[in-house]
Every structure is written in structure tokens, then in C-alpha cells.
Predict the 3D structure of the following.
Amino acid sequence: MYRFASFLFVLLFPLSAFGSAFLIYNQDAKANGMAMACASSIDNASAVFFNPANLPYLEGSGVLLNTILIAPHISFRNQTSGEKIDSRSKTHTLFSLFGYHTGKNWSFGIGLFSPFGLSTEWRRNFPGKYYSLSSSMKTLFFNPVFALKIKEGISIAGGFSYVESSAKFKSLIPVTDGLFSLSGEGQGMGYNFALSIGLPRDHNFSFVFRSPVRIRYDGEAVISQDFPFPSFRARCYTYFNLPFLISSGLSKKTERTTYEFDLLYTGWSSMNTYRIRSEDPLFSRSYHKGWSNTISLSAGINRKLKEGLELRIGYMYDITPVPLSTRGPELPDSTRNIVTLGGSYSRGGLDLGFSYQATYFKKAKSSLPGLLGHYRNFAHLLSIHIGYWK
């Protein structure tokens, strides 16, 4: 009987560990200062990520280390009681590292970065604790690329990615308030290619594609309950497809100012369905999320004030892929408006850059049974990079 009750919990309270948009496109302070509108104009080592076809236009060799500090604030307002509950907000730190070397008409680059991730934790008095108490996902991409300048103004690039990833999820069990947890690790492979074309009047067009990455997560599912309720443990696995990314940018350069407009198309529909498979039928089940592909639009301006000193601003409109019907508390996502600013100072081959991002999420309604209300989200992002080239 107790096992049947636990089965009903797993059946009626679906996993949400992968239930929200978790793209982290902020891989460099300069790019972030322009709201990531940089695919055509990026001119440092982070081009490995944003557009490796730009690498042949960078002379010599260079490296860049970037740090991102993400400080989110998430709250839930209960529709019935009017009570406001804050999540356990934490400041997260992410690092990315890029390097390149350019020859006569070619470049080789390499990058280590984390473009996907999430982390959310709620207090035990949160009414959605039976849906999600905490969830986290981490990824690390190792991405070598090779770029070739076909002729002046036209270059192409390609590369592959080896990806390591881990995921954890916890929620409480109704009636017993036992703990359900799921964790797993996996690896996958992907590829990317890019194109950069110089146009008349100092315009430049870019196209960048990053493939989806299919990862098999192997791990363990556990139900832990106090006596007299039984506990269960079983090995399990699932396949999960990180989405493809397509970005296209058009930039215009003048003597002191660069203007750029970018479009980012993300293949979130790869998240539509996934299945947890286990040696124990209690934990085996398919989940449907109903995600859709989305477009993000961004515009940025970079201004050279004097030799070595630059300032920049940007704006992005980022549409959520998550429908109301499957929006959950693991990281409640909504369409957002993003405003950024930044600057950099370079001298003698050394470059120091910073950026700040304010992320304004639209009010997000929750319609899950027993969790009627709405979420309010806001996030501060601070990015700092240090680069060197010769």
C-alpha cells in the first residue's frame, strides 16, 4: 500500500528538474555590455563562442578569462492566502576561458564555458514543495574551433564540443513529507560552424550555428521516508537534448562607434518530451513539457571615447519557451526585458572589461493544481573579464 502511494506521488507530481529556460548566453563582459548583440563585431577571444569566423581578423595570439556573478530574486504570491514567499536566492559564479592563435589566413581557438545551467531552492513552507524543493543543472563545454579567411571580407569556421553535465532534483512527498531526489551525470558531443561576410559601407553580416547536444544522464532516484513508511532506491537514466542555437547579426562600424542588431533562435522544442527509465517501474515515466522554439532580439552600441577606453550599452527582448500549463517552481520562467551597460580599458596588450545586466521578468502566472498564484523575478548580472594578446 505504501509503495502504491509513493507510485501515485511520482505519477501525479511530475519532475520539473528540466522545466524552464536555462540558456546562459553571457559568456563575455564586452558582449554582455551590448546585450549579446555581438556576433558580427566581437573582436576578442570570446569569438570562439559568439562567432569563431571572426578569429582570422584577430592578429597574433590571445587569451580571455571571464567571470559572471548572477544574483536572482524569485518570489511567489499565493492567490488564495495572499502570502508572499521568497526562494532561497543565492549568488552564482560562472567562469569561461577562451584562447586563440592566428596565422596568415587561418585561426585556431579553444573555449571552456557553461552556456546552460539552473539552480533554484525553495523553503519548506513553500506551497509548491511537492512539485519542487530544489533543482540544479550544470554543463561544461570544451570547444576547439578552426577558422579560415577565404578572401578579404569572407571567413568561415567550424568546431566540435565535448560536453559534461550533471543534474539534481528534490521535492517533498505528500502526506509523509518524505524526500524524493533524483541525480545524474552524463556526456555528449556537438558541433558548430560560422560565417562572416563583409558588406559595403563598413557593414558586416554573420551567421552562427550550434548543434543540439544529446546527453544520456545516468544516476539514481531515491524516496526517503521515516518509519513506518518504506524507502526506495533505484538506478535510472534518461536522454536529454540541449537545444540548438542559431544567431545572426548585422553590424555597422564608424570611426568611433559600432552598432549591431542580432537575432537569436533557440531550439527549445527539443525539451518537449523526455522519459525517465529505471530498473524499478515506480520511477519509469514520460514527461511532456510543451516547449516551443523562441526568438530573442538584441541591439547594442559600442563607443570608443579615446585610445584604449570604450563604453557600451544594449537591450534584449527574450521570449520564454515555457507555456503556462507546464510552468513550475524549479525556475519559473517568463519573457524578459534585459538592459545592459559596460566598459573596458586596454593598454599594452592587456584588456580589462566589465558589464552590468538588469533582467526584468514579466509577471508569471502559475496554474498548477494546488499552486495558484504568480511569480515575480528579477536578476542582477555582473561580468568581468581580463584578456591579453600579443
About this structure: The longest strand covers residues 179-199. Residues 2-389 form a domain with the Porin fold (CATH 2.40.160.60). The chain has one domain: 2-389. The two ends are 70 Å apart (CA to CA).
